Amino acid sequence: MARRGLVRVEVNVSEDDASLVRNVGATLADPAPQARRAELAEPPKVNLKALLASAPLDGIDLDRGLDLGRHVDLGAF
């Protein structure tokens, strides 16, 4: 392993996440898939507009009533 530039790493994860961590480890150990390695290292960049467009808005009332504010009598001054 040392000749291939690999080191052994031990992590503690839940039993549900064990297969995920094994798959990530296998991806990182394989020198060929450079693109997949980059995907693991950096989260995808999403702008705010795309994030809001993908948000589930079903059942959310987005209408607002007309609020004209409060009445101020400027003649009293």
Explain this structure.
With 77 residues, the chain is an all-alpha fold. It has a domain at 1-39. It has three helices and no strands. The longest helix is centred in the first third of the chain and has 12 residues, at 18-29. The termini are far apart. The model has no long low-confidence stretch (mean pLDDT 82).
Helix content: 25-40%
Beta-strand content estimate: under 5%
Structure summary, number of beta strands: 0
Compute the gyration radius: what is it? 27 Å
Helix and strand layout, with pairings?
Layout: H1 18-29, H2 34-41, H3 48-53
Give a nutshell description of this structure.
This protein is mainly α. The chain is 34% helix and 0% strand.
Descriptive labels:
77 residues
